[in-house]
């Protein structure tokens, strides 16, 4: 399946989604990879991970980039050769990349009951009060995505989701929320956009200016 969806988050920022229906061999034949990527691909234990990784390269190629335009820093954060910001996420049959002239972080996460089960470990449980079970799952998944996205922006060792990132109260219907990071004696604010993409939640976070 080719490109599945494009979301224009703001005038500087666009997210692209690949619905992965191809097998590893077809994806592998369709992309060209630098040696370090080949090495990484060979080391991946699951085919799902390999397909997610290759689908990111399909998205890059769709946009006129190749794997040669993508590098990673020591922490694993991706960077594009033309200086634009990129953030990457994959979950089961979806891979997505977001490209922007602004700093941002993204996360895509499948809606599943397990996220609700582990919710007390990473969110304020009062934020799930008075919701139906499907809405509780959706809200917990958004909050998880918020924390992953902020982590990807900051890319700093030692950030803990429950201890340092706090979501403000929000309604699912709004598609927007905010959060703060309290880390290293500093408080930083973030604005968040979130979307339903099939049976997934997609989150994009930006530092507040
Ligand atoms: C790095 C991390 C954010 C990746 O998230 P994930 O849900 O496992 O996977 P995703 O598919 O959403 O994202 C993976 C992509 O994130 C990007 N990434 C990895 N490390 C990154 C970093 N330090 N900064 C920014 N982006 C990073 C990569 O592009 C990677 O994909 P690729 O290697 O195939 O290009 C996550 O594993 C992590 O370390 N989280 C913080 C630790 C933590 O506090 N966890 C929970 C505690 S309750």
TrEMBL record:
One of its GO terms (molecular function) is holo-[acyl-carrier-protein] synthase activity. Residues 104-159 form the 4'-phosphopantetheinyl transferase domain. InterPro entries: 4-PPantetheinyl_Trfase_dom, 4-PPantetheinyl_Trfase_dom_sf. Keywords: Transferase. This is Phosphopantetheinyl transferase. It comes from Flavobacterium cheniae.
């Amino acid at each position: 399946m080719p490109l599945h969806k494009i979301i224009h988050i703001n005038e500087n920022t666009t997210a692209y989604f690949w619905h992965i229906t191809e097998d590893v061999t077809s994806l592998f034949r369709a992309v060209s990879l630098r040696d370090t990527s080949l090495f990484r691909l060979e080391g991946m234990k699951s085919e799902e991970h390999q397909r997610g990784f290759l689908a990111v390269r399909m998205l890059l190629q769709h946009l006129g980039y190749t794997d040669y335009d993508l590098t990673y820093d020591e922490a694993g954060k991706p960077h594009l050769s033309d200086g634009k910001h990129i953030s990457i996420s994959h979950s089961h049959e979806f891979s997505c990349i977001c490209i922007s002239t602004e700093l941002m972080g993204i996360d895509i996460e499948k809606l599943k009951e397990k996220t609700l089960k582990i919710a007390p470990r990473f969110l304020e449980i009062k934020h799930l009060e008075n919701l139906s079970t499907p809405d509780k799952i959706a809200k917990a998944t958004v909050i998880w995505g918020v924390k992953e996205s902020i982590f990807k922006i900051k890319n700093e060792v030692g950030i803990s989701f429950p201890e340092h990132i706090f979501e403000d109260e929000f309604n699912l219907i709004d598609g927007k929320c905010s959060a703060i990071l309290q880390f290293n004696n500093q408080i930083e604010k973030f604005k968040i956009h979130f979307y339903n993409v099939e049976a997934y939640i997609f989150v994009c976070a930006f530092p507040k200016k």
